[in-house]
Design goal:
It contains 8 helices and 14 strands. The model has no long low-confidence stretch (mean pLDDT 89). The protein has one domain: Nucleoside Triphosphate Pyrophosphohydrolase (Alpha-Beta Complex), CATH 3.90.79. By secondary structure, the protein is α+β, with helices and mostly antiparallel strands. A hairpin with an 8-residue loop joins strand 9 and strand 10. The strands form 3 sheets. Strands 2, 3, 4, 5, 9, 10, 11 and 12 form an 8-stranded mixed β-sheet that branches. A 3-stranded antiparallel β-sheet has the order 1-14-13. The chain starts with a strand and ends in a 9-residue tail after the last strand. The protein has helices at 10-21, 87-94, 98-116, 134-145, 150-157, 212-220, 228-237, 243-247; strands at 2-3, 30-40, 46-52, 64-65, 68-70, 82-83, 121-122, 160-162, 167-173, 182-190, 206-210, 255-256, 259-262, 268-271.
Length: 280
């Protein structure tokens, strides 16, 4: 399937041509994690948390996205405090070696807390915490500023990463011709009981809980911008009867890498592999 997207322009078309001829080396993709935070909808199905990125952001500015971001070097050190499936077991589902699998989970926990205030961590006995109050706000700010690591936050508060709250869902790799590339694992997670979503102003200028079918309808009307991985995931979630239906699925992710191509008229197009169910 071919998709023409509005942000394709002349420079990108030239990058596609230069990479195809070997004149330009593709950028190396950065490992990243994205989390679809979900809750049961009153009328059945699910609602998913989405953040609208500020238009000024270099990557996907103005798009509605799920919380997430790149793996930091410090995420590899945060995996010591852990509850749930082992890194080896998760690595089999994530198509990643154990060390990277653990870092991907830690990045998912860190980014979801930084961007949405949702903390997928708890006490060693399995109790999920509710991160509310000025002291938690200060820790979240320090995490965003890089003056506090996830490992430091967990140690200070006697918490562990709740890997058992994260369900591996998908893996998308940015096309070769994009100047900023990511190798992103997608996770699904239920909103922990008692927790509230609070967006980080630098990362989102709007936060919404929305049914997947409503988000897709808004994109078709031109009222919302969705990247192909986001739209595809929303399409999959429209089939779910509730949170348990999504979290109960055992999935082993396979890499999906769309391809950027130039047409004869000089326009750039995105080719998405057949069979993934792209809904737009």
């Amino acid at each position: 399937m071919r998709i023409q997207l509005g942000w394709f322009d002349g420079p990108l078309a030239r990058r596609i041509a230069d990479i195809a001829t070997g004149e330009l080396e593709p950028a190396a993709p950065r490992n990243a994690s994205t989390v679809m935070v979900i809750r049961d909808a009153a009328a059945g199905g699910v609602e998913v948390l989405m953040l609208k990125r500020p238009a000024s952001m270099k990557f996907a500015g103005g798009a509605y996205v799920f919380p997430g971001g790149s793996v930091d070097s410090a995420d590899f050190a945060a995996a010591g405090a852990w509850r749930g499936p082992s890194a080896e077991e998760l690595g089999e589902h994530l198509d990643a070696p154990p060390g990277l699998a653990a870092a991907l989970v830690c990045a998912a926990v860190r980014e979801t807390f930084e961007e949405a205030g949702v903390l997928l961590a708890g006490t060693p006995d399995g109790t999920v915490v509710v991160p509310e109050g000025p002291d938690w706000d200060a820790d979240r700010a320090a995490l965003n500023e890089g003056t506090l690591s996830l490992a430091g936050l967990l140690e200070r508060r006697g918490l562990v990463v709740r890997a058992d709250l994260l369900t591996p869902w998908a893996r998308w790799i940015t096309p070769l011709a994009e100047p900023r590339r990511f190798d992103t694992r997608f996770f699904a997670a239920a909103l922990p009981a008692g927790q509230q979503v609070t967006a980080h102003a630098a990362e989102a200028d709007r936060v919404v809980w929305i049914r997947p079918d409503e988000a897709l309808a808004a994109a078709r009307r031109g009222e919302a911008s969705l990247l192909p991985p986001t739209a595809t995931t929303l399409g999959e979630f429209t089939l779910a009867s509730g949170v348990a239906d999504i979290l109960g699925r055992a999935r082993t992710v396979v890499p999906i890498q769309p391809v950027l191509v130039n047409s004869e008229d000089g326009q750039a197009w995105l080719e998405v592999p057949d069979g993934i169910g792209y809904p737009l």
